[in-house]
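User: Okay, second chain of the day. Same drill as before: sequence in, structure tokens out.
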Amino acid sequence: MATLILGTAGRVFGGPLGGIIGTAVGGMVDSSLLGGGRPRDVGRIGNLAVQSAAYGEPIPVITGRMRAAGNLVWTSGIKESTSQSGSGKRGGGATSTYSYSASFAVGLAARAIADIGRIWADGRLIRDAEGAFLSPIVMRLHRGSEGQAVDPLIAAAEGAAGAPAYRGIAYAVFEDLPLADYGNRIPNLTFEIIADAEAGHDVADAIAALALIDGRSIASTTGRFPSIAGHFAGRSGSVAGAMASLIDMAGASVTSGSKIVVSGVGGGHVVIATDDCQARLPGDGRGRERRKRLGGETRVGAVEVGFYDTSRDFPPGLQRAKRGTSGVTDHQSIACAMTPDQAKTLATTMLGRSRAGGLRTNVRLPWRYLGLQPGARVVLAGDDIVWRVREARFEAFIVNLDLERVETTTPVAVSGDGGRVLAFTDEPAGVTTLHLLDLPPLPGELPGSPRLWIAAAGASPGWRRAAIEVSGDDGASYAGIGIIEGGTIQGVAESRLDTGSISGWDRFSVAEVDLLSDTMWLESRSELSVLAGANLALLGDEIFQFSNAEAMGPGRFRLSGLLRGRRGTEASVSEHAVGERFILLDPATLIAFDPPIEALGRTFRARAIGVGDGGASPVIAIAGGRALRPLSPAHLRLVFDAGAVVAHWVRRSRAGFGWPDFIDVPLAETSESYRVDIALDARKVRSVTVATPTYTYALADRLEDGDGAEVKITVTQLSESVGPGDFAVDMLVFE
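Assistant: Same drill. Structure tokens below.
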């Protein structure tokens, strides 16, 4: 109500600017009168619909080892969970934090498989080659047997009578997968599917597997076939069409019938006798037409093979073979996984086969050759050339065959370069190193609660991320607060940092640190960048900045060009030791945890939930409210004036550490208040509270307190929420 009234009054008497001021003042009045403002919802999404799976999408047939995206075949929907912090007291509303998870099933292959290897979510590895998930994930694999049972989660959600077992289909079930990493949606998952247990695999194996799916079988396989890691038949179309593309790619031939006979390079052929080549059609004087070669316009001069590169986690790759400067380029996109060397060899072989196929001829044979069908291979007596039947016609008891030459030379292995490999190591994640920090306000923030910061990283090269949970009830229960990606740069001090100046650049002291992982790195920055906030770090309890970072070896750095005692940590400048913690204070690599104001003084525990963190102990810290505590007053000075001791100081504020406009920094407290403690000869004799940065200890008060040769005055700024802050002290000695 005050917002409406004062906003209207401001517009009437002060114009638009008066309206803005009136609205702001009214909002503050409403907040103080109504107590606490509105509750806040953090991280809530408005639409809980899951990503759709198109009806009728083909389920792929996988042979060998292949990376493939799955089809979402079942889900119970996105589940919303909430946790609350704060209680609406002291002018702040309660905060509800929302998190989301989903349970779902992903179809993998339309046949039984041996196993799965790595799994990627939105392109990021979440399961390594050893089968270990890089974050806590519950998954069950059903390998696609005809007798597989219903998954218990699907049965519980759908009822035993209505739950499908997806027999004959390999699928994976994920249970309560956290969705925070994926924009609160089910991620796009791809799987390394291992369909066959045998180590070796070639095109003939893929043809045989597809033939079984198509209800046929391979009677025999002869000759040599290209080596591949796996094959994916998942596009719209028949299984027979996928087989035909493989047969064509391999330059093989097929003899049709109740069973299939496949011949690769060097396979069997039919020898045609010389006399049989003299068969003539009635009225035709020719038996064999002369050979002819295709012209330059249709002759293949280069072959490009598109494939899936096993050396780079199965991305699309391209290898090219070229001969001469003329001819067309034949583009071949094949759904096979192979190495760049195998693809280059295949492109070279296909180029040779295409050029050989440019030589064609025609023969007319007696009716007893009626069994020769397109794809069959023949050799004409007296010739060493192998021909393949392109077309067969039967007319007047004469078999008319159009033939093309077949490449019969053994393919020579050719080296191919797959390009730069962006390796993602499958090494174990290892244990997470955690720090729970009670810090002064970092640049750009002014917390309203006793904020704690969490730093996490791992020493293992396989460490990628860790989910963080916090407990405020001595470990009886934990709640997730987020995930740290990539890790916080951290380590330990290799030497003791000397005490140095806090009034300017410390160009003499040096900090030597050993980082947690050899993959971590520190960079030198210009002094202007440091003054603007760069390279802020915590060493022990002192926050400092560094300009120079000199690499001394793997993970070891010497830091110099220091600014000491930053963010109000001057008291810790002289309290360093070997082995103390070093943490680079980059808020982008930290997680902030904000317990309510009434949690001041409470002990909190934090733990990481990562692959290698099962038995790790939690780290413990007390919410001391360092982010809310006033800083120590600056430039405290005692002056003797006509028997009195006068103390002067300069106010410091956690709301502003700079002095950009040459006026005093904002207060950041409800009111300005200081506690002044007086001691005479180490005896505390008096404590007073003042509202301005000065205090006079009068001569009469000194005499009343017993006087002494030494006067020590301690000044502490007071906060309504956390009480006294850091102190400043000065002493005056009388001769």
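The first helix runs from residue 2 to 34.

User: Thanks, on to the next one.
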